[in-house]
Amino acid sequence: MRRAGQAGVPVRVIAAMSGGVDSAAAAARAVEAGHDVTGIHLALSRNPASYRSGARGCCTIEDANDARRAADVIGIPFYVWDLSDRFHEDVVEDFMSEYASGRTPNPCLRCNEKIKFAAVLDRALALGFDAVATGHYAVLHDGPDGVELHRSADAAKDQSYVLGVLTQEQLRHSLFPLGDTPKPQVREEAARRGLLVADKPDSHDICFVADGDNAGWLREKLGDRMPNTEGAIVDEAGVEVGRHSGTTAFTIGQRRGLRLGQPAADGRPRFVLDIEPVSGTVTVGPREHLAVTHVSGVRPRWAGTAPTTLEGTVQLRAHGQEHRCRVAVHPAVEEAGHGRRETTVEIELLEPAYGIAPGQAAVLYDGTRVVGSATIAATRRVADAAR
Amino acid sequence: MTASETPVVYLDHAATTPMAPAAVEAMTTHLLEVGNASSLHASGRRARRVVEESRETIAQALDCRPGEVVFTSGGTEADNLAVKGVYWSRRAEDPRRVRILATSVEHHAVLDPLQWLEAREGAKVELLPVDEAGRLDVHALEQAIAREPESVALVSVMWANNEVGALQPVADVVRLAGEHGIPVHTDAVQAVGTVPVSFAGSGVDALSLTGHKVGGPYGVGALVARRELPVTALVHGGGQERDIRSGTIDAPAIAGFAAAVELAVKEQASYAAQVGALRDELVRGVLSVVPDAFLNGPPAGAERLPGNAHFSFPGCEGDSLLMLLDARGIECSTGSACSAGVPQPSHVLLAMGRTDAQARSSLRFSLGHTSTRADVDALVEAIGPCVERARLASR
Fold first, then answer.
1. Three-state SS for A31?
2. Phi, psi at B84, each rounded to 5°
3. ipTM metric
4. What share of residues in chain B are helix, strand, coil (percent, to 5)?
5. What residues of chain A have any CB closer than 8 angstroms to a CB in chain B?
6. Angle in degrees, CA B184, B189, B193, rounded to 5
């Protein structure tokens, strides 16, 4: 099957419009390509103030208005779709429970997997649309085995990482009209089209967390569900070097905000090596002890046919660098007496990577092509091997 | 085909209805004339004359005295003025008067001020239950008053509900409140011109109406208030309208408003007969195509606005259905209020005992003076496939 909306074939498209410049420009391009486009803004919070207020994000009234004005200028119908329940269940709750378990989730991938290219796409298809268009910077083209997802032309803006969770079926019904264009050109184009959002700043933070204050947000929202509200920060010998007010404030590889009273004996900076939510212990140590040589992933999502082995590259966090790797996929098996062992993806890094946090996604590439992704469950460090 | 190439089938007259040509003419005639109605010179006097003649026209149409008509910026301001203004005055007279009784199906122009008074001004608001057709439970009102009549500042009961078209038992309300000298306000925004409305005959103390629902312009309306009713001003700055409403008087808009009210009231009976018949066809047509849909509100007849048809379509999201109809050039309403653009289930349907899902599966079609048989036919033709699609989308 060919993908929806390829050159020359006009289809009915839902353009998801966040109120930012990228999604507005993407909608305009979809119209220009001849598609029959309807704009929607996703209302992701019933009560916008409950997630964040004032600042930029996907949950503010201002953004809904910006999206509406962009749709007016482009000349397409516009509606607000209420996905607040789904978003809360699938993205916000997951975000909270992952942090509570000492992991570092990426809610943008989760939103793409569960909301934009699932709940929204399903509804769009049922309503008679053929595809969902977004302002993501990534490229789709037809390959020998189906639709391929590639990194964008503008390497600095590439967002293929957060799309690494999309399956072939989802990719077939996706449009990323901006993938071949550098961001400055997108802004120019938006200004030329009279879109007032042309110079609106990019959003970087998690959309539902005000002012990027993850720790404060988690403390407030988790409340009684905080795994701990205080604990020890220890060095690798187990000697207490500081205290903290909740492990949810930490992520593996973090250096800032540790507030350690005294410098390490060797005077070198210390990083979070380990988070233990049950005992509330955070272990810190020198950077070289963060060096990871092997990553185990679970819950794989493949852009096409699932591979068994792969030599390629892996990206281990948003905007992170590529690491050369060798991958082996171990399919799920029923183990007598032990129940089912889920599929795992074993990723051997050819040179060590630093600050790799369980919960983040490992997105696998063959050149510029996204092969698939897995959620990081465990890592093996150089330091572990030495012990 | 896009909506712009399709003739629009406008079935949202309860949201706003096209201006009557007579109202456009009356308004535009005065737009080019200079003169502040408060000025003492000839131009000012001419503007003042337009305003006072309009006031008299409206008074005649609504069976009230000209001095009882207070012009406002529309229905919302009139409701705010009635609810807050009367509450403050009545409480100032007697500090025990802090209770306000209203139906649970009032428009947000009444509900929101009530909520605000409760949060900020010490009011105790009691929202009274309605039956499954959306009509006030008169017995509940009687009990609420009887519990402590001296503490009731105001009773506010809309004349007709904007979502499901239920006419409210205003006469009973006036009788019950009148026994204790409690003033009654009614939001008659949907009623004027569509059902018979007599201010004097109804016995209410205050009545809100607005221009754009009767074929007049936006941005103008009135609170009809008995001279004896104490009303504290909300807007200060000149006291142009009986000292309870300030602001330069918008003579052209008022002229258009008066022309529209006059025409709508004059033609009310024929409008009700004609639009009521179209509405009945619409209801029959929709139910024949979608047999499991059901009509919300009172049965068509004396207890329902003639132009209102409000359905629940089981298994559909109202906003999916609205979008599908809109794509075919058919315009209607989910009848629900939006906060940040997020559709909330209608408080009216919830008050009528509907579930959240039922409330979300609802659409309002409202007919008006420009509606035709062709509009009804277009809806009946489109509704079947649209419902089918919308059902797929909410699985």
1. helix
2. -75, -45
3. 0.86
4. 45, 15, 40
5. 36, 38, 41, 43, 45-48, 60-61, 64, 68, 77, 79-82, 84, 122-123, 126-128
6. 110
Residue in this structure with the two tokens 């009209």, named with its chain if needed: A177
Q: Residues of B at the A interface (Cβ-Cβ below 8 Å)?
A: 2-3, 319-320, 323-324, 326-327, 338-344, 389-390, 392-395
| A64·B341 Cβ contact <8 A | yes
Are residues B340 and A126, on separate chains, in Cβ contact within 8 Å?
Answer: no
How far apart CA A157 and CA A318 sit, in angstroms, is 11
The CA distance from B183 to B178, in Å, is 7
Q: Which position has the token pair 């789709």? A: A140
Q: pLDDT, tens digit, for every residue of A265-294?
A: 788 899 999 999 999 999 999 999 999 999
* Residue A254 three-state SS: coil
Note whether B188 and B160 are within 8 A (CB). yes
Beta strands in A154-308 (DSSP E): 174-175, 231-234, 240-244, 271-276, 281-285, 292-302
Identify the CA nearest to B268 among candidates B214, B216, B194, B202.
B194
Is there a contact between B390 and A64 if contact means CB atoms under 8 Å apart?
A: no
The superfamily CATH assigns to domain A291-386 is Translation factors (2.40.30.10)
Query: According to CATH, where is 2.40.30.10 located in chain A?
Result: 291-386
Name the CATH superfamily housing domain B3-19+268-393. Answer: Aspartate Aminotransferase, domain 1 (3.90.1150.10)
Q: Where along chain A do the CATH 3.40.50.620 domains lie?
A: 12-212
Digit-coded pLDDT (tens) for B212-266: 999 999 999 999 999 999 999 999 999 999 999 999 999 999 999 999 999 999 9
Helix and strand totals (H; E) in chain A: 11, 19
Residue-wise pLDDT tens digits, B60-93: 999 999 999 999 999 999 999 999 999 999 999 9
Q: Which two tokens stand for residue A356?
A: 């790799």
B9/A229 Cα distance (integer angstroms): 60
Nearest CA in chain A to B2: A36
Cβ <8 Å between A77 and B3? yes
Residue A59 is among the residues annotated as catalytic for this protein: no
Q: d(Cα B360, Cα B379) in Å, to the nearest integer? A: 20
- Which residues in chain A have their CB less than 8 angstroms from residue B320's CB? 123, 127
